Amino acid sequence: LIAALIHDYGHDGKKNIVDGTHIPYRLEMQSFNLAKDRLKSAGLTDQELEIVKALILTTDVTGDAPSPAASVKRYKESVLAGNPDPSLLKPELQILAQDNWYEVALMLHEADIGIGCAISTAYTKFNGKNINDEWKTEHTAEGDIGFFKFVVEQKMFSETGAALLQNNFDQVMRDYGLDV
Questions:
Q1: Which of 41, 16, 40, 46 has the alpha carbon at shortest distance from 28?
Q2: What is the dihedral of CA 73, 90, 110, 43, to 10 degrees?
Q3: Which value, in Å, is the radius of gyration of the alpha carbons in the chain?
Q4: Cα gap 12→36, rounded to integer Å
Q5: pTM of the prediction?
Q6: 102 versus 160: which is more confidently predicted?
């Protein structure tokens, strides 16, 4: 819950790109660092802070393949296949392999992106236009489809995301002409 509340804390409306250079976790670390002292004074242990940080880092869908979010998805697939492989997680996210924190990370990731793609087609277009206006780029259906395919990977990975968002997301993708 803490990670969900602060994952966009202090968000400046920009991407993790500064002057054309991708800075991994720029926004996510900014959010965590702004809240860290308050969380520590509220009694969170160092390990709990590391878990909160890893959960927040998972909301980063950018960067070198696989993105942080995608690395958690690959890890979950290894768990489901009966062969958990923590090396699939980026090193800074490996704490998520403990106590099924990867599932919480996926729920946070899907709550973060689900609002933009799994409510309704009209809202997906509205949200996409707002994001593109914020980034001063043109909103296109092709951009939305790229987001569905490469960021969301056309499915919700957490059990909660699948139960709450997948049917709506499938309808949005059908409305965009994608096979589901």
A1: 16
A2: 130
A3: 16
A4: 18
A5: 0.87
A6: 102
CA angle at 28 for the pair 26 and 68, rounded to the nearest 5°: 90
Query: What is the Cα 21 distance to its own chain's centre?
Result: 20
Q: What is the pLDDT of residue 42?
A: 97
| AA letter at 113 | I
The whole-number average pLDDT for the span 133-161 is: 87
* Region class of 19: left (phi > 0), else alpha (psi between -120 and 50), else beta: left
Asked whether the beta carbons of 59 and 69 are under 8 A apart, the reply is yes
Give the residue-averaged pLDDT of 150-163: 85
> Any bridge partners for residue 18, and if so which?
21
Any idea what DSSP says for residue 152? Answer: S
> Can you name the residues that pair with 21 across neighbouring β-strands?
18
- Which residue shows structure tokens 């699939």? 88
Total residue length of the chain: 180
- Cα separation, 32 vs 164, in Å, equals 27
Q: pLDDT-based confidence at 15, cuts 50/70/90?
A: confident
Cα distances (angstroms) measured from residue 18 to each of 129, 131, 177: 22, 17, 34
